[in-house]
Specification:
Layout (H helix, E strand, L loop, with lengths): L1 H14 L6 E3 L16 E8 L2 H4 L3 E4 L8 E4 L1 H13 L3 E7 L10 E16 L5 E16 L4 E8 L3 E6 L3 H25 L2 H9 L5 E3 L6 E3 L22 E6 L12 H14 L7 E5 L5 H15 L5 E7 L2 E3 L6 E3 L9 H4 L1 E2 H9 L5 E7 L31 E5 L9 E2 L4 E2 H11 L5 H17 L8 E3 L2 H4 L8
Parallel strand pairs: 1-4, 2-5, 2-6, 12-13, 12-14, 14-18, 18-19
Antiparallel strand pairs: 3-4, 6-7, 7-8, 7-9, 10-11, 15-16, 16-17, 19-22, 20-21
């Protein structure tokens, strides 16, 4: 009878593994040796492990079924414990850092991230034995010191298995997780040392590429790499889980001339917002044929109000053509299917946009417009037979929690730069973020002279505008910490 009681207790200890619950998997020490490195990379790198990254945990279900409960793995600690020992032999020098300032002799930053993880259990023969299985994918990104992405890759571990018995179930689960991390990092070390992109970077040590100017044949630096990839550490993020964004870029129109770089700029704005902390699920990206009048209306007036919270910060970005109503002078966003001859039927009025956004019960709304609305050219179109208008957009309708930063003033046109591959306004806006500018007023003060000078080089007047007055906005509407 006593033996039967012991057997029942033994069985119950295993059955509870299958009951729904939450289990914190312990940190398990495993052997971590670097792979044989055929060719060391002559770079000094900093491996960025912020406090937030170190404390990162992954929570998921075993066997993708809730009946097995949820399991939390301390992957941040696992990665920090092993990444230096495994990756450092691949480089001339490597150091672990938690953020800025970086050591002066560093050539590049390496940032790890858990991409996906799977774990499950299967029978292993015998009444009291099982098999714990795990597989992880780790994303590594290498950036130069200007924030330009040099290389990134997702490296997966092979399937790691370990037989467990009653007494070492949790240890086996932690062990396969840690061993999968080690295996993925070992593979990453081999992949990095064979990367063409990294070796190309080494050959130039981060010197900008050049292009020939058409008039003189002289070489000019390509500066678009200054902003083509966001580079923000975890500690730079200020956007929260409830923050939202609508990003619209119309480059190709149904029946109108193109608005150069508008769709690529919109995609890049989304990347920056994600890097600053906005969740992908909270961003609606409308590009080209997806940015119809009905889609814009539905997104701004239904999708957005249904998802916001009282503490949400909302960012609206539009790049594309604008147009004035020849009769009223009202400014319209021109959707993919818009027609400047029938703006009331096919356009989306700025006044309506401001009105709908002003009714949102949220913390802040930031509107960014890389467009113009006079009909004088650039990113502006005009009804046939109409004359360009002096735009007097009524911004008095702005709510107290809204700020608007626009590419132009009055009759000016919004320009783009073939050398940079961006709209001039968007380029300098992103550069301001890259250079650490924080709130919308600080960004405006930074970009205004730069946009004006850039426009003068092509004999165009363009000066960004901001509403309300910049003095009223200082210290508010922040995008960076």
């Amino acid at each position: 009878m006593k033996r039967l009681g012991v057997l029942i207790i033994f069985l119950l200890s295993f059955l509870t593994v299958g009951c729904a619950g939450h289990y914190n998997i312990p940190m398990v020490d495993v052997t971590a040796t670097p792979p044989d490195i055929v060719q060391k990379i002559p770079l000094n790198v900093a491996i960025l492990i912020t406090d937030q990254m170190e404390n990162y945990t992954f929570t998921g279900h075993a066997n993708e079924s809730s009946i097995y409960g949820t399991y939390t793995f301390p992957f941040g600690q696992m990665i920090k414990k092993h990444i230096f020992d495994i990756l450092s032999p691949a480089f001339n020098k490597a150091v672990l850092v938690k953020g800025k300032p970086y050591p002066q002799d560093i050539d590049a930053i390496v940032i790890p991230k858990v991409e996906t993880f799977q774990h499950w259990y299967v029978g292993a023969g015998g009444a009291f034995r099982g098999k714990a299985v795990a597989k992880i994918s780790i994303k590594l990104a290498v950036y130069d010191m200007k924030g330009m992405l040099v290389w990134e890759g997702i490296i997966s571990s092979p399937k790691v298995e370990k037989i467990y018995s009653r007494n070492d179930f949790w240890k086996a689960t932690g062990s396969v997780a840690a061993e999968s991390v080690v295996a993925a990092l070992q593979e990453a070390a081999k992949v990095i040392t064979s990367s063409r992109e990294i070796h190309a970077f080494v050959s130039t040590k981060g010197v900008s590429e050049t292009i020939a100017s058409k008039p003189s044949g002289k070489e000019l630096p390509i500066v678009k790499s200054d902003v083509d990839k966001p580079f923000f550490g975890v500690t730079d993020k200020i956007m929260g889980d409830n923050d939202m964004a609508v990003v619209i870029g119309v480059e190709r129109y149904q029946d109108l001339p193109a608005s150069d770089y508008s769709s690529s700029d919109a995609k890049l704005i989304k990347e920056y917002l994600v890097s600053l902390g906005v969740k992908e699920r909270n961003i609606e990206l409308l590009l080209n044929e997806r940015a119809t009048q009905s889609s814009i209306k539905k997104t701004v007036e239904t999708w957005l109000p249904n998802r916001i919270k009282s503490d949400s910060k909302v960012v609206i970005y539009y790049s594309g053509h604008g147009a004035p109503d020849a009769k009223t002078g009202d400014a319209y966003i021109v959707p993919f299917d818009g027609d400047p001859n029938y703006l009331e039927d096919t356009g989306y009025p700025l006044k309506r946009l401001y009105d709908k956004l002003g009714k949102l019960q949220v913390a802040e709304v930031i509107v960014l417009l890389d467009s113009c609305f006079s009909g004088a050219g650039g990113r502006s179109v005009l009804a046939k037979g109409a004359r360009p208008l002096v735009m007097m957009v009524d911004t008095g309708v702005l709510s107290s929690n809204m700020a608007v930063l626009s590419a132009t003033q009055g009759t000016q046109i919004s320009t783009s730069s073939p050398e940079k591959g961006h709209g001039v306004f968007t380029y300098y806006f992103l550069k301001a973020l890259k250079d650490g500018k924080k709130d919308i007023a600080e960004i405006y003060d930074y970009i205004k002279p730069l946009v004006e000078d850039e426009a003068k080089q092509i004999n165009v007047q363009q000066s960004p505008s901001i509403s309300p007055d910049v003095e009223k906005l200082k210290g508010r509407f922040s995008l960076r910490k």
